[in-house]
Amino acid sequence: MTVLLVALGAAVGAPLRYLTDRAVQSRHGSAFPWGTFTVNVIGSLLLGVLVGWPAGTAVGALLGTGFCGALTTYSTFSYETLRLVRGGHRLLALANALGSVAAGLAAACLGYALAG
Amino acid sequence: MSEPLDPRTDPDVDLRVPADRRELTVRPATVLGTIAAGGVLGALARAGLQHLAPHAPTGFPWATFGVNLSGCLLIGVLMATLAHVGGGHPLARPFLGVGVLGGFTTFSTYAVDVQQALVAGAPGTAVAYLAATLLGALVAVGLGDAATAALLRRRAAR
User: Which Pfam families does this entry report, sorted A to Z (chain A) (predicted)?
Assistant: First the structure.
């Protein structure tokens, strides 16, 4: 049952990351990867809420492990940071690396506090 | 090194890459279904590893750490390979990159595990995990990309 719930959450979370990324990226011209930044912060906020609530096993599998896990990504984030460095945008790369981690952690703390 | 003319920053979808811009107009259901299928596989693999190696709130989240570092190494390998073959199959990036590796790695669990270690009174673990994942992921993606690109160039030159 847990496996099915994780699968269902991920089946929605992964395409939603792609669609959100597209929507955000089409609305600005900067080299900064706001699309991935956005999904990572929103996913961290939501998972903070789920852990602080706290959600049961089934909801945790569906929305936490499945949905939030697949909505957010470390691989896309790290590759974008690498490409920013390669493209000569060293400051943006640094801002992306430190900004994503700081904003993600702040969002997780906020979500946890809101739910508690 | 990847091709210098490749404008791509975002491996999920980069609107400066014409093929990426078009892919949702041509066959949206196929692309989104492929991403979902890959995402399910990646998420299940992640959940399985997290289940096999659980951690206490004050402990170091080794499973998620390994998942994120290996996923970052593999996105470097994948994108260098796809760049080498001129993009590859139109569904290769959506399935393997956006789906499998995007679903496998996670930023939310990383952020919340750091927060949980802080709440549990283990700031040392929190800071070590936060820094080790970030630095490890960046080294892994750079290594995956550079090693793959070098290997493929050497093979092509033979």
Answer: CRCB
